[in-house]
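Section 3.1 - Work completed
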Amino acid sequence: MTLEPGALVFAPSPALGEGFARSLAEALLAATGARWQVRVGEGEARPTLKDIRDARAADDDARIRELPVVKAVLAAFPDAELERPGDNRHRVNP
């Protein structure tokens, strides 16, 4: 990825979609008042923040399932499912 005044080259990611470069150029024009050359470069993109979060969640899930108490509960209740914890910072206790 390179970034210079008026020019941006980024690594492609399937999550971005085909019209991303055009949309980004339009957004940069609206934000800066200057035209930008935005294009797809070569190589692979780094993992997205979502990819990183998903990988961490999968790793956490695998480690939790290996805990003896969790194994015992899942053996006793085969239809049980582990739920991902939500963001409860704003939750009010009843």
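Second construct:
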Amino acid sequence: MVAALGSFFGWLLAFPLAGPALQTLPLDTEGTFWAVLAFTVGHAAGLLLCTVVLKFDRALALLPGVGAGLCAALSALSPNLPSEVIVPFFGLLGLLAAPFPVAWGHILATRIPQGWRARTVGFGAFGANVILYAFNLGLIPAPAAVYVAAASALAAAGVWLFGLKEPEATRQVRFVIGPSFGRLQFLALFGFIVSVYAVGGILYGIIQPYYANVPGAGDFGLLPYLAGVVFAGFIADRMGRRPFGVVTPPVLGLAFPIFMVDRERIAFPVVQVLVMMGFAYADVYFWTTLADIGTIYGGIRAFGLGLGVMVGTIGASFGATRIFGGLEPQLQVLAGGLGVAALLFAGALGTVVPETLGRVRSVSVPPERLILRLRPYGLTERELEVARYLLSGLELEEVSDRLGISRNTLKTHVRSIYRKTGTRSRHELVLRTLEVEASD
């Protein structure tokens, strides 16, 4: 898991996401901007599309590895492309790169114990940034940069296809119980994503060029992030995820006023530590919380939607950075103040998202036994049959195929089941049946 994430995101950071390997392509500054923006748009669209495509077992087993392999091959071909096709090429690259992180997150949510998830994310992010660090230090010759980045994606494809693909095993009935995530909690989490990655992305895009000529900036730059992801991984697996959701936004927000008054560029170490530590905490918190939510509601849906929103936000911040840089100094201060306020608000949103460490547990109960507990709710025999499949964890496509009915008819039965039992989702239906079971 660590090797797969480190390799794939090493490619992502070193090449298509404004990485140093982009310098090997025939692009000027304007072309680079549009290429990176096209990648983020294609990647965000692909991540959202994965919530539908990766529901099928064969797609989940093959698409992530095949997609990563194609990313490697196309990356190696990119230096030979004419400049006019590079922007749409990067959009395609973003689309092909989408299945890998969603499927990786699904495995994190379903096969890695809760007490190891933050460290798995942390060490994977550490490996990815070590690859990026090697590029930044000039340890990789510029002409070979894109080929080294392509090799990282190829390594990720190999690890997936030969070690991490979803096993074809018989389905076990398992009910996962955890903290309730209602509309308010999900809105708070997505508000946290938008605030941290939008404002933080703009802040990063402005700070890095400003301090680029500071002696030692290239050597020091990523060290706080490397330390931060390892620290956050250990603490989040021992003490919980929620503290990082509360602490991260103020850490990022504190960097902006220091940066604005640093006319002599002497505060670079302080600003860099705050920004990179903030992003390290945000990445570990967000990925691990998504995994815990995915254990309850489905890893593919959680990571497809969550990462899709995050990447879309990063793309928006990438474009907003150009606008911010062109503002008058007074307006920059005003916009920065609004950004800091948004980050402080994100810290408040972090308190709304419930703690998930140690609160997600698995309960194994035969669905037939629980179906008996649903009879007092007045369900018809067909509705009880549908409820049995729902409680077994089957997707709606599988249920409609097994029952030989259309999706619309199935949805009618599902709505009727929820109405009669006073529930609004499959998760609430499971909780309702377990409540009845416990009361008997």
